[in-house]
Design a protein that fits this description.
By secondary structure, the protein is mainly alpha-helical. Helices cover about 50% and strands about 10% of the residues. The strands form 3 sheets. The protein has a two-stranded antiparallel ribbon. A two-stranded antiparallel ribbon has the order 3-4. Strands 5-6 form a two-stranded antiparallel ribbon.
Length: about 210
Amino acid sequence: MAEAYPSVELSGDPLKRVGGAVALDFVNTVGWRLAETAAERLLSYDDLLAWTKGIGAIDATHARRLAARAKDDPRKAERVLAEALLLREALFRTFAARSRGKGPAKRDLDLINGWLARAAPRTGLDLKGRRLGWRWPGETLESVLAPVLWSAGDLLTGDDRIKLCAADRCGWVFADASRKANRLWCSMEDCGNRAKAKRHYRRRTSA
């Protein structure tokens, strides 16, 4: 089973979306991934479900049904979470390789393809209030990751510029949609401001 990163307290909104796509935000559910002590946000299946619901990838009705299934079969829910964390790490390595202009490792591609084979396809649209959304693919515990897999497939077969945050210990990934393709940070409010503060400090101490 995949081991979750140690849980440490994080500042800011745990549902903050900086990746630009569901799959990238899923990868970013680990804070400070490249630090000695990373911050794991997905410590249970309920956490995974709450995150997916919180970013709007599934609706409240399906979230309740999946929560009931997880309660009825906690061992299965724990196993799905462990497999989801393995998928997340494979996606991180694949997106990080993409940011360097390289292809994915075969083992990561095989793992992602295995999940894609299990995920139901997008077969239709439903009206959700005034907005259209993809019809829900089913109510197995694994189906909570369907929106992540759809998003990952779109990104990995598309032309999006995937980047790794330039901060040393961050490890978050994002789609760079800037006009000049020169975005460096996952977020200017976080890593960008830290980098500016460091540069300012170095200038002051070297003066």
